[in-house]
């Protein structure tokens, strides 16, 4: 994984994407997320695999543009969720604090 992330970051630098405007990069993230949704709707596993990969690539670049890296962002998110409690409701995990608001 480390090697792949490094390759994406180097590819981004070679294309000048590391210095591009991150709001434009976020549009690419959303575009790729849309492709994931389309793959799910069509039950297309190959397109889903590619789409998830494309989302990760765009997120690696978005983090890079903001002087962050994927590990830093993922660690931050995990620290937030690791002790989270809640329950599944209709196939969706709802965190405890959101359940109390209902």
Automatic annotation (TrEMBL):
Organism: Ureibacillus sinduriensis BLB-1 = JCM 15800
Domain NTP pyrophosphohydrolase MazG-like: 28-78
A Pfam family matched in the record: MazG
Gene3D superfamilies, alphabetized: MazG-like
UniProt protein name: ArpR
Origin organism lineage: Bacteria, Bacillati, Bacillota, Bacilli, Bacillales
Family matches, as InterPro entries: MazG-like_dom
């Amino acid at each position: 994984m480390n090697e792949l992330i490094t390759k994406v970051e180097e590819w981004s630098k070679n294309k000048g994407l590391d210095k591009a405007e991150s709001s434009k990069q976020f549009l690419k993230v959303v575009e790729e997320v849309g492709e994931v949704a389309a793959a799910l709707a069509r039950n297309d596993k190959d397109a889903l695999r590619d789409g998830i990969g494309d989302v990760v690539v765009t997120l690696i670049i978005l983090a890079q543009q903001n002087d962050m890296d994927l590990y830093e962002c993922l660690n931050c998110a995990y620290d937030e969720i690791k002790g989270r409690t809640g329950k599944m409701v209709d196939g969706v995990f709802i965190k405890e604090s959101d359940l109390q608001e209902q």
